[in-house]
Amino acid sequence: MEDFNPKSEFYIRMNKYYLDKPGKKPYTNMKIETIMAEITDAKLNKGAKKRRDYYILQKYDVLTVAEKKYLIHKKTDDKDDIKYVVSYEELFERLSDYHIRTGHGGMGKMRAALSNKYSIPRPAIETFLSICAICNSKKGSNRKLVIKPIVSKDFNERGQVDLVDFQSLPDGKYKWILNYQDHHTKFISLFPLESKRAVEVASNLLTIFLTFGAPKVLQSDNGREFVNSVINEIKELWPESGKY
After folding, report:
1. pLDDT digits over 149-183, tens only?
2. For the segment 56-108, what is each residue's pLDDT rounded down to a tens digit?
């Protein structure tokens, strides 16, 4: 039996939903690129504009950040938040990111969190929530979970490493931020990353470990597989670490 792939299942359901509603389907990456090009041409056109030009100029605008262009909804007021147009291909990643940020929040929390920054249709949120294994497991259990907090009594007893996704607003070549925190003191170290490859994460963690020492336990919300791959890379970069 094949492993369940939530991303594949999400797009299978979304494609089925939009099968008889093609006009309501979110823009693809290619369509967004086309619209941004149309906006640029319309702005440069000093002559008579077409009806299409007026439509896109009234509805959308192009935001450039670190040489990367984003399609955004036209602001009606300077005080309005910038709202990005999310492509069809990016829906799953964006929803997954905010679902984790909201602590696996439901429809209300998800819409509230997304509404100020992204334009994502309700059916996409509903579909995503319907395939979340964690949320579905909660529905099937009426037992109250008793969560025992993890207590660290000393510095370097436990370290937490996580990656913050900045792909939508990169700083040049840097698209991720490594966030390392000592569990006891809450001291944080931040490093910009070009990617989330284990070797790059390990290289930056090694800088921290050689400065402050390595923790007895390394944990991450990115999962055990991620931590294991990072530790293996650290062993390659720092063979002496295996002696401790």
Report:
1. 778 889 999 999 999 888 888 889 999 999 999 99
2. 999 999 999 888 899 999 988 877 888 999 999 999 999 999 999 889 989 99
First vs last C-alpha separation in the chain: 41
| Main-chain phi, psi angles of 106, to 5 degrees | -85, -165
Q: What is the dihedral of CA 122, 93, 19, 21, to 10 degrees?
A: 40
Q: Which two tokens stand for residue 84?
A: 């990005």
Residue 115's CB is within 10 A of a number of other CB atoms, namely 12
Question: What are the tens digits of pLDDT across the range 110-121?
Answer: 999 998 889 899
- pLDDT given for residue 1 in this prediction: 40
The residues that bridge with 165 in the sheet, in sequence order, are 176
Cα–Cα distance between 124 and 10 in angstroms, integer?
8
Spatial CA neighbour of 99 closest among 229, 7, 34, 208? 7
Contact call for residues 102 and 113 (beta carbons, < 8 A): yes
Are 101 and 41 spatial neighbours (Cβ–Cβ below 8 Å)? no
Q: Are 218 and 161 in contact (CB under 8 A)?
A: yes
b/e sequence 93-104, b meaning 16+ C-beta within 10 Å: ebbbbbbeeeee
Decide: 220 and 190 in contact? Cβ < 8 Å.
no
pTM of the entire predicted model: 0.54
Residue with tokens 């207590």: 151
Helix, strand or coil for residue 23? Answer: helix
Residues in CB range of 27: below 8 A, 6 or more apart: 35, 71, 85, 87, 88
Q: Quick check: 24 pLDDT over 90? A: no
